[in-house]
Design a protein that fits this description.
single chain, alpha+beta
């Protein structure tokens, strides 16, 4: 259990709130609550829906994680810890057993027990739900063992199922309430077990929630939590300066740099897990030659990129595995930056005069893409940058056409499960949607990582895969970006490496 959860659980036990949860579930915030205990947070995007099982995007999850609990949690120390489940274990290769926390109730007083967890998993898997959540694709169903024990059955062993239920797929929904009001009403007026309960939502303006006094880990330090969508960083920063918001999250290094020196504004950055890389189409053209791919890795000076473009708010990665991910091997070296070596490799591959190619990126990453193109040019690789709006970029990225974004594109992975499997599951094994590389050795290692029961076998496979990635260079390995936020003097809060806006540990002063 994380230190945050432990201290707040102690407070709950000492205050005796567990026995009062049913009575407090219907209570709101007292009219006497000081306004100083309201935290107003902006993020670039708005939640798509308030039904947690009908969304699969981080902006929605950032809001919903405050109203809904998950079976497991990941604290500021980035370790997996208890949530609605206090412990879990493998019964056999196709069964995980979860022991649930006693006394947990939804905001309407409905119990959150093994039946509720079974109901939630069944609803998530039901085709009628149309859930975009794919992490639990191996789950076949759940069985209630007793009121506080549930077995989750899978079609094959899933070694990181507990990590996968720390966010999207791990949310519990209230069976009785959902059956009574239906999915449309539930999406407008959600009921969860989280530290905050829903109050109101004005689309394109704000979503407001209040502290839930009967939460199993104790009442949050905040009285109210308000989320405001602000897609324009300049507008968000102006709102911070005019005291419309207290905290601006998910800033780019460039936007954060613009605020440097302003009075009453603090810029904070924390180690982040989102990992950036260049996806290379190794199936045709010059990029089919390993020497060309190695040349690109030698040409892109990542430390210079981090310093000059990202204002130092990122860390180089040797391959695609961020340092905080389970499976990362610190023995794997990063590529040396060597223009002479890059030109030599290109000449050996038959391109003594360099080559022409195309680099595609979302316009949110246009500055990084242009800088990468400039670095490649030093080695004779002339990469024309094509910038797309985020929606077009995403639709091409997730399409069945692996070449829709051209020979090279700039991409990132949030790696939110904290396991390296999440970083590679979609883009390495040859039959996956975003894969543009076919190597039987890699396929074999992915299969081990995704199904091995022995954790030591998984770690060996992860290490072997990282060495293979380093040698074959099917990607250009870049950096993991910090979580950057700007705030006034009132809030105190620290994100974990994933950067989820789980605000129940936040507090405000003044």
């Amino acid at each position: 259990m994380t230190a945050r959860r432990q201290s707040r659980r102690d407070a709950l036990r000492l205050g005796g709130l567990a026995t009062l949860a049913p009575l407090l579930g219907a209570c709101g915030v007292s009219a006497a609550e000081p306004r100083s205990r309201v935290l107003r947070v902006s993020q670039p995007d708005e939640a798509k829906t308030l039904d947690p099982q009908k969304q699969g995007d981080m902006p929605s999850m950032n809001v919903l994680i405050n109203m809904f609990d998950t079976l497991t949690t990941r604290g500021t120390d980035n370790r997996l810890g208890p949530g609605l489940a206090t412990s879990w274990s493998v019964l056999d290769e196709q069964t995980w057993r979860f022991h649930l926390r006693p006394g947990v109730r939804f905001h309407n007083g409905e119990p959150c027990d093994a039946h509720a967890v079974q109901y939630s998993l069944d609803r998530l898997r039901d085709p009628a739900t149309h859930s975009p959540i794919v992490e639990l694709r191996y789950v076949d169903g759940a069985t209630v063992v007793d009121p506080l024990t549930v077995d989750v059955h899978t079609s094959k062993h899933d070694p990181i199922l507990p990590a996968k239920v720390s966010l999207f797929g791990g949310v519990a929904v209230p069976p009785r309430y959902l059956d009574e009001v239906g999915p449309e009403r539930f999406a407008r007026d959600p009921v969860g077990t989280g530290p905050f309960r829903f109050v109101s939502w004005q689309r394109d303006h704000e979503l407001r929630m209040r502290a839930f006094p009967g939460h199993w880990s104790g009442r949050p330090k905040l009285a109210e939590l308000v989320f405001k969508p602000m897609p324009n960083p300049a507008s968000a920063l102006a709102a911070l300066q005019s005291d419309e918001v207290d905290m601006v999250t998910q800033l780019t290094p460039d936007a954060a740099r613009q605020l440097a020196g302003y009075g009453g504004v603090r810029i904070e950055n924390f180690p982040g897990m989102p990992t950036y890389y260049l996806s290379l189409n190794t199936r045709e053209g010059p990029l089919a030659d390993r020497r060309v791919r190695q040349a690109l890795n030698h040409a892109v000076d990542v430390p210079l990129l981090v310093k000059a473009v990202l204002d130092g708010k990122a860390r180089e990665v040797p391959t695609m595995f961020p340092r905080e991910a389970n499976g990362f091997d610190p023995a794997i070296p990063a590529y040396t930056r060597d223009i002479r070596r890059a030109r030599q490799l290109l000449a050996e591959a038959g391109y003594p005069n360099g080559l022409d190619t195309r680099l595609t990126a979302s316009n949110a990453d246009s500055q990084v893409a242009e800088a990468i193109a400039g670095l490649l040019a030093h080695a004779g690789v002339r990469a024309k940058v094509t910038v797309l709006d985020p929606s077009t970029y995403k639709s091409r990225l997730t399409s069945s056409n692996s070449g829709a974004l051209g020979p090279i594109y700039l991409a990132k992975n949030t790696g939110w499960t904290g396991d390296a499997e999440s970083l590679v599951q979609s883009n390495i094994r040859h039959d996956r949607r975003q894969s543009r590389w076919h190597d039987p050795r890699a396929d074999r290692l992915i299969d081990i990582e995704e199904s091995a029961v022995d954790p030591r076998a998984r770690m060996r496979a992860f290490t072997e895969l990282q060495w293979l990635l380093h040698t074959e260079a099917p990607f250009v390995f870049l950096f993991q970006l910090d979580n950057i936020l700007a705030r006034n003097d009132r809030p105190r809060w620290r994100p974990n490496a994933v950067g989820v806006l789980d605000m129940d540990s936040a507090e405000v002063t003044g």
